Every structure is written in structure tokens, then in C-alpha cells.
Amino acid sequence: MGFVLAKTETFQCDVKAQERTPTGSWREESFSLICKRTGEDDRERRLELKHGDLLREVVVGWKGIKDENGAEVPFNEQNFEGFLQILSAVAAAVDRYWLDCMGVKDIRSKN
Length: 111
What we know:
Blueprint: E1 10-20, E2 26-36, H1 40-47, H2 51-58, E3 59-63, H3 77-83, H4 87-101
Antiparallel strand pairs: 1-2, 2-3
């Protein structure tokens, strides 16, 4: 199949974040963000943004964000601002967003 020039306005960004537990061990948590694509016209400006400001600009939804009881947390401004206070999740989301925009499937990939 050839390269498809017409792209959707958004894509699903699958994020894996490492989170410290109360006992000091690490736990991998995963979730998906629905993000706006970044084209060449916006790339340089968006690269200059703080992590939270970038995510505020590009994230339009999410999947797999749960509360302490395992219930799905709806995507809204208040919940998103709470998400932005979890540094490990924000850092993982920003890294994955830029890798996805550049077409990098797995940073550990040899190809």
C-alpha cells in the first residue's frame, strides 16, 4: 500500500507510564490519549511549549484513565487538569506524542 496523504485530524496515542507505588516499587500503567496531529506549520511552536501546555493544546480525549476503584474517569477540563499534576504520566504522554507524530513505533526498535 502506498502512503496515504489524507490523514484524520486526530490519532490514538497509546502511552505506558511508570508509576511509583506506596511501597517504592514500580508499576507500569497504560492509557490512550486522543490527540490532534502536529504538522510542520505547528511543530516548532509546539516544541517550545511546556509539557502541560502542549497537552492542553493537542489532547481532545482519552481512554483507560480510571479512578482508585477502577471506574472510567470521563474526559473533561477538571479531570484533565488533575491528570496534568501527575508528572510521570505527563512526561510519558509527551514523549509518546512526539514519537507518534514522527512515525516512531517503538524507540527500542532496531529498524
